[in-house]
Amino acid sequence: MSSTSSKTGKADGAKKPRRASAKGTTRKPGRPPSSEKGGTSRRSILRTALKLSKSVALQDISIIVVARSMGVTPALIHYYIGGRDWLTSGIMNLFYQNVLKKWPEPTGDWEQDVRNGAKRFYDSLIEYPGIAAYLVSNHQFRIFQLTAFGDRDYGAEMLNRLVGDIRSAGLSAQRTGIHTQIIHEFVMSTANQATHDLMPADHNQFYEEKLAALDPVKMEHIIFGKVAPLQLDADSLFNEGMSLFILGINRDREIEGVSDAKG
Known about the structure:
Layout: H1 34-37, H2 42-52, H3 63-70, H4 74-81, H5 84-101, H6 110-127, H7 129-135, H8 154-167, H9 173-195, H10 204-212, H11 220-224, H12 227-230, H13 234-256
Helix pairs in contact: 2-5, 3-4, 5-8, 6-8, 6-9, 7-9, 8-9, 9-13
């Protein structure tokens, strides 16, 4: 769980973008000509940028990249969005908004709710590999977003839902926070591995050849456990990992004397 780099919720050097004025015809400094704006809007820019993150890492999506994709000038993107931080945060906020639109409703079974919430986040990252790539290597905008014009911070709202699912297990604040952090990191890491072919199953033949060449006496422990890992794909890793997390939460419930009644 992370925040932006300053206490005010704004990234260092980030300036609030100017809202376009509908009054008058005099161009303000930096304002693009009306003939170029066309149907462009802040929302359309962010939607285009989010779509780009299906194939481009978010850290590589710049104002120039978005402008080229839309066939407009960088000045137009600056006019509606602001600087690079506002673009990145805007994309993340739109991503989290989409995650929340299909967030599972509580079932009354904390185990199922924890699995369902984590799976919703995981599936969303699989859909946007560029977001997954950004989250595993960047602290800024992982959760808390820059907001303007009355925007909601959907990153914070998504985290609140995830914590709520885990909190329903009835653990203390400390253990709830720890399990949330670990599950959050696990989901991001697994999704990134899935979307960038980093799982053992993605390189099965290569590993089989390497293992076959190992000394069976000196490397007996690697050979002993080789079969299952070589068949492990991202979905299997997600399911196995979540099962272990549920076991850990149940262990803590027993230690803390939480009632077996679910919900």
